[in-house]
Structure prediction request, 442 residues.
Amino acid sequence: MLSRKYSAYYHTMTDGTVKQTNPFNGTEVWSIPGRGNKPLTNAIPVTAKRISGGTADHSCIFCQHQYTRIAPEKSRLVSNGSRHEILYYLMPDQIEQQQAEFRRVGNMFEIVTADYWRKNYKYEHPATVDQWRTSYLKHPTGLPHIQSIAMYKLMQGGMTEEQAESILRSGRNSVFDGFFGGCHDLIIGRRHYAEGAEYDTQLCSSGELTPEEHFRYFTITIDTMRDMLETNPYIRYISVFQNWLRSAGASVDHLHKQVCALDEWGATVTGKVQMALQDPNVFNELGTNLASQHNLIFAQNDHAVAFVGIGHRFPTIEIYSASAACRPFQLSREELRGFSDLVHACHAALGSGLSCNEEWYYTPMDAVYTMPWHIELKWRVNVQAGFEGGTGIHINPVLPADFRTMLVERLDALRSAGKLGDCSIVDGCLNTPQPLQYWRRT
Ligand SMILES: [Zn+2]
Prediction:
């Protein structure tokens, strides 16, 4: 593809209105001056309640020591001094032996269910999973745990207590399948509240982790993807996302990611792969280079670039891995650490008080037209209204340049406080275009 006109995607009117068209999906967005700039702040609201040590430990079903309220642990990441390792298929008596830094459990309310894979593809769980399930259910506290969460799941699905008990008594235990062998998992962080929190609004978001903890959070998430791919041959894409706070779709205000395997790519990824087919360099050209031409780049390191995205309904940060590897589990340790550091810095800059979606995009397993691994952080500060529905024009209340300035100010403060990993603040544009190397890989 020959050079495109960058002004077609981003145009500032005389009154300051910025008209944008998303280069990858055509979404039309206006940002109008004076529609409101939410301050980037972690200030404590007056309605916040003080927390005590006990409360900090037992706040929700994802908190430490609430292990029996959710599915059993498929894996956990633990620290042994400076060493970290992932333990698999934990038994009930291992749960309290060692503190888990991150835990992987089956989502009790899967989007794509264990039944879906079994009935549509005749997918059978690997022997290791079946052995774990058998041993777990034989353990004195294993069966009561699984029965109790199965009861909860069935009753949440609309059954009465009697109906749910009748199912469990009948031995029709397919309801257990997703707990052990499903392909929609949660990765749960250790802390509910931020380190040193005094109020119940000081939650531990991705940005409240240290850069090292955030790297390990990525590590176990990617290990989960690898494990699913090794065990389920019908997977064509794995959706990875994080909903932070209830208005972003989270059911629990405790840091967690979701890893959900799919048997297709989905429309968004298909559209992006089609663009890569037509123009292999499109993610440099309409991603980083376009943002650089409009001075929207704000952070970079040797392995990643971060900028304010163009044409999004919500104020959105896009972070691209610069690696030639184009799937998360193909990056080297250094590349992954660099990318993680930049994503962490962006979360820290957004703060923990406002809702945010994190969405991962990368080259599907069975695609030969490559796209770089990139992550979008969508800051849910606005609500879509009738104007958007009626016109197809979306109002994003934050001007892209203002958003960039806010992020830079916050990153400066965080860097001074020593809270960031490898993150250089960039003053709008790249020194040289073409930072992404993904197109070298075929
Ligand atoms: Zn919690």
The pocket of zinc ion is lined by residues 59-60, 62-63, 192, 254 (CB under 6 Å).
